[in-house]
Specification:
140 residues, alpha+beta, 5-stranded mixed β-barrel, two-stranded antiparallel ribbon, 3 helices, 48% strand, globular, disordered C terminus
């Protein structure tokens, strides 16, 4: 069994699916720690709903960091222009880093999605959005 088949049959418990618009075009980088190549990009997601008067209400957009280490996914991400609507499947990861604030080093955590699958996503139809039930507001 190839590594690709193992990956396809594996159902991770840490799994995320995001649909949104790409920010700036993806860029290839090399890890300073490992020398490994990866691609990084940003993905913006937003939610909206129709209020009681039928007016569309938008929530603020959220920026997500996307990284890819798989050569196929890296190539796919590099092929998309900024602003393209994408569907990203992957896993949520965190990296810890230090920043200096007021002369003291403070540990911070940054969340990223490691992309395992990417595809261009269709825009939602206006008719579908008008008939969809209002989305519930997420709490943090």
């Amino acid at each position: 069994m190839t590594d690709q088949n193992k990956t396809q049959n594996y159902e991770p418990t840490n799994r995320i699916v995001l649909i949104g618009n790409s920010g700036a075009e993806a860029e290839e980088h090399t890890s300073k720690n490992t020398g490994e190549s990866f691609v990084a990009m940003s993905l913006y997601t937003s939610n909206s709903y129709l209020d009681d008067e039928g007016n569309r209400q938008d929530f603020a957009s959220t920026l997500h960091n996307i990284v890819a280490y798989d050569p196929i996914v890296m190539k796919q991400l590099l092929s998309f222009k900024a602003g393209v609507r994408l569907r990203i499947e992957g896993k949520l990861t965190y990296r810890t880093f230090e920043v200096e604030i007021d002369g003291q080093l403070v540990n911070k955590k940054e969340a990223s999605i490691v992309a395992k699958k990417v595809e261009q996503a269709a825009l939602p139809s206006k008719k579908k959005a008008e008939t969809a039930p209002p989305a519930e507001m997420a709490t943090s």
